[in-house]
Amino acid sequence: MSGIVIIAFVVLGIVFTDPLLDAATATRDWIGTRLGWLYVLATTFFLGLALFLMFSRYGNIRLGPDDSRPEFGTVAWFAMLFTTGMGIGLVFWGVSEPIHHLHWPRTAAFLPGEDGAPHVEAAGEAMALSFFHWSFHPWAIYIALGVSLGYFTFRKGLPLRPASALYPLLGDRAFGWPGNLVDILAVFGTIFGLATSLGLGTLQIGGGIQHVFGIESNPLVHSVLIVVITGIALLSVLAGIDKGIRRLSVINLWLAIALMLIVFLLGPKLWIISITTTGLGEYLDNLVPWSLSFPSSLMDEQAASWTTTWSIFYWGWWISWAPFVGIFLARVSYGRTIREFVIGALFAPVVVSVLWFGVFGGSGLYYDLFEGGGLNALAEEDRAFRLIELLPLGQIAGVLVSVLLIIVVAVFFITSSDSGSLVVDMLTNGGDPNPLKAQRAFWAISEGAVTLVLLVLGGADALSALQAAAVVTGLPFAVILLFMCWGLAKALKDEPRRHGPKIVYEPEDQMPSYRPPGGR
Question: pTM for this one?
Answer without folding.
Answer: 0.88
